[in-house]
Amino acid sequence: MKNKTLPLVLGLSFASSLSIAAPHPGQELHEAANCMSCHATKPYSPEKTTSFPNLVKTVQFCNDNLNAGMFEDEIEQLADYLNQTYYHFPK
Question: What start and end residues bound the annotated signal peptide (predicted)?
């Protein structure tokens, strides 16, 4: 008798590993907007941006001044990525 559940388990395991490997959507926005062209010397400073709401406002400021063309949900995603990577503010 063959084990019919083994392919299903392997398939689910593979699918879950794909979702873990997917980059944060904000990381893709960070790269597409070329944020490091301005932030290369001192990437991001928690001393200047002191909370998550301020971080969102800062990302909005950069978006507006550089005409990056991000929508509100993309600004939130980018701020979330920066928070997870650099700032670690509570939300």
Answer: 1-21
